[in-house]
Please model this.
Amino acid sequence: MEAVRTEMPAPAMPRSWRVDTKPHKFCPGCGHGLVLKCLGQAIDELNIQGRVVFGCDIGCSLLSWDFFNIDTIQTHHGRTTPVMVGLKRARPELVTIAYMGDGGGYAIGAQHLVNAASRGENITVVLANNTQYAMTGGQMAPTTLPGQKTETTPYGREPETTGYPFMGPEMVAAITREGAYVARGSVANLRQLKSYIKKALENQIAGRGFSFVEALSGCPTNWRTNAAETWDFIEEEMPNYFKVGEIKASAAAKKGEEDG
Amino acid sequence: MTLEFQSKTKELKKGLFTLFPGLCKGCGLCVEKCPKHCIAWSDILGVYGTPSVEANDECIACGICQNVCPDCAILVRKKTGKVGPN
Model:
């Protein structure tokens, strides 16, 4: 073993990650790891690790409860958003991040997201969209694509009987006031996703209003896909329905983008 | 507490490809994303007993595999001594 120990390079993890809890609890190939890597890099770059509070929701996203070297709260069913709102109101100097999946944010916790967004609360919400309820075994979620097979739609989702997928960022952009930041990124383009998350955090630090980033994420376990099919679904199928890009960015945020 | 992960470094023509078997879950995302298709399954087992990965001399040390690894199990360094992107 001595020969291995002569050179001991460290894994290239973001500084804000908690190394002693790695490898993390997510499945092999899970998109959460990539989204949280971008979030960690954004926190590192803004140098705000000491004043961030991270809230994770129910679902697979709760497996990030010990992910960061950051104060973390875990709540249920979308209530991460109001808990973070309360924290932000009590301690405005903190940077609060609500992290959730599409089940917690768009289905059972949609009311919290809608009300926090329409009130213009000064928090950041990062939402990972993997088109189904992953932790319970891959049932149909509001974001399941038409024709997509899940546990509860074995013949593919039929919009006639089960409706159309939920367009989260478009909805949030429609109900928020000027100054909000709303974007949809994808784990297929990590540099872009990191810049969106960073801008969402900067928007909160500047006190301009609600910041929301949805990340298209992968779930090889419940999609039952291999690596090639996973990338294909994230890169080809999902952006057909969920358009990637900045949906609402205030003039100030756009100026920041031009400056650097 | 800092934890040290055991590393297996392979010296290639253009860079150093380091893998941490204690972090690699064998998802294969890097195998598909590699622009040179030079990453293959290795005999070294990862944390879940699945094969980990290794690169061959086609590697150009671009660091894409390091970026797309959800577990940060790959570290790519160019031979100039600089650490790969991010």
The first helix of chain B runs from residue 29 to 33. Chain B is about 10% helix and 30% strand.
